[in-house]
Amino acid sequence: MYRMIRMLDQSPEVSFLLDSEHRIIYTNPAWDLFAEANGAPQLAGETAIGSNFFDSIPKVLKPVYMRAFKQVAKTGLIWEKTYKWSSPEHARRFRMKVYFLERRNWFLVTNSLLVERPHRNIHGTDSDTYFSRGIITMCAHCRCSKRVDGSNRWDFVPEYVRLKGLQALKISHGLCSICQAHFYPHLDSAR
Ligand SMILES: [Zn+2]
User: What is the number of alpha carbons within 13 Å of residue 169 lying toward its C-beta?
Assistant: First the structure.
């Protein structure tokens, strides 16, 4: 175990350990760097320790991850998923791997950065376009905001992603049609 922690301390992959109840018991230095770079210094260091991993996942995506952890614990096989985790400035794609550490019933989660580039299509804030009764519907996965004109168009509005981090914005999480089709095809009740 100590050897593994030493390895994770050096790893550029954003990694953490969960106990059998899915509580975060260790985060590596790459996690701290990532949290700070993403305007979430409150998650750096010891502060995430003890919190439940599933509490950080939007409700709409929870079933996928709960199922995955169950499967990993049952089979011992590594589970992998590509997902988006964009900041206001950069579109990013990560590969998550979940390992089961059988001797302790713990989970190791690693996230390696696959792609990072500036956003290509960004939109400005406009309360008439995105707000309905003071609430924005944001894709839980790509963080695009849904237009309220019934067109089912979702736009990346950096300012809303920024405000979301500060919890200054009322957001209801959904899943845009692209993310549903490409990343969560088995999540029927997503929207
Ligand atoms: Zn999306």
Answer: 23
